[in-house]
Amino acid sequence: MTTVALPAATPRARRGLVERSIMPGFGLTMGFTVFYLSVIVLIPLSAVFITTAGMGFDGFVEVALSQRALYAYRLSFGAAAIAASINAVFGLVVAWVLVRYEFPGKRLVNALVDLPFALPTAVAGIALTALYAPNGWIGAWLAPHGIKVAFQPLGVVVALTFIGLPFVVRTVEPVLADLGPEVEEAAASLGAGRWQTFARVIWPAILPALATGFALAFARAVGEYGSVIFIAGNMPYKSEIAPLLIVMQLEQYNIPGATAIAATMLIASFVLLFAINLLQGWSRRRMAA
Amino acid sequence: MTVSAHNIVKHFGAFTALDDVSLEAQPGEFLALLGPSGSGKTTLLRIMAGLEFPDSGSICFDGVDVSTRPTRERAVGFVFQHYALFRHMTVAENVGFGLTVKPRAERPDAAAIRTRVNELLSLVQLGHLGDRYPSQLSGGQRQRVALARALAVNPNILLLDEPFGALDAKVRKDLRRWLREVHQTMKLTSVFVTHDQEEALDLADRVVVMNHGVIEQVDTPDAVYNRPASAFVCDFLGNANKLDCTITGGAIEIGGHRIENTAPPAADGRGIAFIRPHEFDVAADGQPGVAVTLRRLTRTGPMAALDCQTSAGALIEVTTLEPPAGLLPGAALTLVPRRVRAYAA
């Protein structure tokens, strides 16, 4: 009797990286995803680095790490961080109100939250400038107290806060809604005060969502151009944002100069977002395994 | 601890959730609030807990009025239908939560908390799961964690809002038996809300039957089942045939058949008679009784179920151990009620 060599029993798919799945179309969808991300994200981004590489190290340092550029980075990242922090606090309050309370005009408030998403940023910039300029409605009130908003770094923060609000509200809202009043009632019945309930029960539950909202608002703010340039005043070394420097380089047909600044911002943003993501993953793992 | 509610009234907008409700739970008693949805049972429980405040009336613990005290000062253990566990805390942290939020002066040290948590976890038979997160537990286990958490702070009373409502039938039954045992060892005054009559009759020392914001009857499970105080209680508890009848001088007449001994006595006039399916004798056609036509006969285990119809068109469901032999749909029968409860219509 001869032994027939049977083919290896392991199914082909098991030998690869992919588990066999009942859902069809993995190859097609994965292929499309990679292609799409390449065309939309990776290739344009790599072009930034390739163009930058063409200018040599000295040229890069001269443009991307010039004194003026460093000031601009500081303003862009600093103002974005401040704006995202402000949004984290007040966006949380707005989300809280929208989830927990019923009041007349709630739907209107709900729609208003999304307005910064929908409004052309230039419109927002012009509106904010008109309001906060020393002769504007709000600016006229603030001027006698020595507070200047428009054409100052503070104006940049105001504009970035405006455009970042919906990110925090819309990421925290569903988590808060999902949390429900029951856990708060449970905490209260166990003797916890309002503050203890917030600190021990609500805060840990919404922290990952809040971090996501912060990261999104921050990322949006770092790259923001349209709404800022009107209110910032764009004074070099003072109220000039990094994206504006890029545009200025482009206007002088210095494309490598523009990409050098862009690449620097890109790396900085990536590192920051990656760090936030790590933090978030860590807190999520700690909370609900 | 004695827990009493006095003349509680609660409105939600135009809806009256509780209409002048008074109730007392004796020390160590296990009380069930039973009623259909919208009957106000959960609202009453939440008012006892201080999660809801009445428009008027008061709640007393051992005679002390606690109506204005917020939940956290009432020391009530509250168990929610959907557990309301803290998802970011382990089982042990959940159970110990009530101890760790105590004011510093009263707070036990970490070792004492750990001991107490372990004690409670073994009481709820989850001693080995202290390090898990709630998401890793089954529904029945989660509810036991919720109970351990509520018991950790040595509450005055234990309040449970549909504690088995989210569980499947088998788990529900096990947990019910287990809760009964826990109650017997702890001797804690407990009130639980349910819409499941079987659960209420099985668990409670006394059952409070509620409907439309008022209490219909408060009595032992046996009494509410066998001596229902109102048509609603009779209809809500157990399965009963509802038949139109005429009441004259304490006797009632159904479809030409007169029955003398009815309980409770009802005023003369038109009434509704309630007869449970097993409270009929099935006799041959022509005997004194309610004449019916058999429409369907089904056997479910030892009992046979007969769907009958009177000449007036009313449907009567009868269960009997021994149906007359050779019955076929369409056969004429006589039903003789052994026990009738009649209420004025």
Q: Would you kindly provide a written description of the structure presented here, covering whatever features stand out?
A:
The complex is a heterodimer of chains A (289) and B (345). Chain A has 289 residues and is mostly helical. In chain A, helix 2 (26-53) packs across helix 12 (255-287) and helix 8 (153-189) packs across helix 10. Chain A has helices at residues 12-15, 26-53, 56-64, 67-100, 106-118, 121-132, 137-142, 153-189, 194-223, 226-232, 242-251, 255-287. Chain A has twelve helices and no strands. Chain B contains eight helices and 20 strands. Chain B has helices at 41-49, 91-100, 110-123, 139-151, 169-186, 197-203, 221-226, 231-236; strands spanning 3-12, 15-25, 30-34, 56-61, 64-65, 76-79, 157-161, 189-194, 206-211, 214-219, 241-248, 251-254, 257-259, 269-275, 280-284, 290-300, 303-310, 315-320, 332-337, 341-344. A six-stranded mixed sheet of chain B has the order 6-7-8-3-9-10, with helices on both faces. The longest helix of chain B is centred in the middle third of the chain and has 18 residues, at 169-186. Classes of the chains: A mainly alpha (289), B alpha+beta (345).
